[in-house]
Amino acid sequence: xxxxxxxxxxxxxxxxxxxxxxxxxxxxxxxxxxxxxxxxxxxxxxxxxxxxxxxxxxxxxxxxxxxxxxxxxxxxxxxxxxxxxxxxxxxxxxxxxxxxxxxxxxxxxxxxxxxxxxxxxxxxxxxxxxxxxxxxxxxxxxxxxxxxxxxxxxxxxxxxxxxxxxxxxxxxxxxxxxxxxxxxxxxxxxxxxxxxxxxxxxxxxxxxxxxxxxxxxxxxxxxxxxxxxxxxxxxxxxxxxxxxxxxxxxxxxxxxxxxxxxxxxxxxxxxxxxxxxxxxxxxxxxxxxxxxxxxxxxxxxxxxxxxxxxxxxxxxxxxxxxxxxxxxxxxxxxxxxxxxxxxxxxxxxxxxxxxxxxxxxxxxxxxxxxxxxxxxxxxxx
Length: 381
Prior knowledge:
It is built from eleven helices and seven strands. With 381 residues, it is an alpha+beta fold.
């Protein structure tokens, strides 16, 4: 760096230095009117050199950064522009970046890094707890949008308990309505596999689910999370609702599997009333009779503990009696006849014999309350 000349007479043009020559009236004196013009324009900075430096620093497209640096040097020499240092730095950095990319490709580092990145993105998009875990929602509600949940012990108060997960196929986002329909079908069907003792489910518990959004789908989220939650938006749950092979003994499992098999068929009751579609109802009644026959044999052949032998034998007799009524319903010639045997066939369900059998097995003995037609004033509640 050169040093400005000392104060003195006006210096002739062409003096070399970092700063302009001082004015004869002092360094801060204004020029006489009309005697001072603008400084000669400074050469512009080469734009290609700037681009080369940016690419070199970011190590993004290193081959492009190297080419741009070389082009910038040629342009600077030809046009007299500034930016040689940036062009050189960009070329050097891009050369180093290019060498590193070649080395990483040969060792598989880039592939590993990309897979790790995608996996991290998928994990960040999937905030759902696992099956059997309980959690609190940040908002305290199981409705609306959420981006994270806090897993907490099931023994204490919590907002929800995960009872199943459903994996959706890949491809493009199928739409919110489609995913909701799948969640409705799958989650309600799977609740009995986790909470096999439906009598033990509190009346204020219902099924909720956490589904992928369009944004999380793009990050690899393909999972529907099925959840038990309180029907009161401000309510919570306490204790686990799990009742399956991890929490029940062999005798309890044997009974609940038979009961579940019967429930699955009963839940397939046609939406049309017998007077609207007698044929569909007769077919369904035949299916109920068949499942009662199979489960009657299963329960009758099981080696029950002494305390449960008599109660389970009485239950088998009741199932056989109910099976006869369902067989008559399946053969009914009109809706009125169907209803008579339908009512008789359903009499076994959740009756005193069932309560006694459940007590003997150490299961919940309080029949759940079922929703009934508000117009039916004689219905038990």
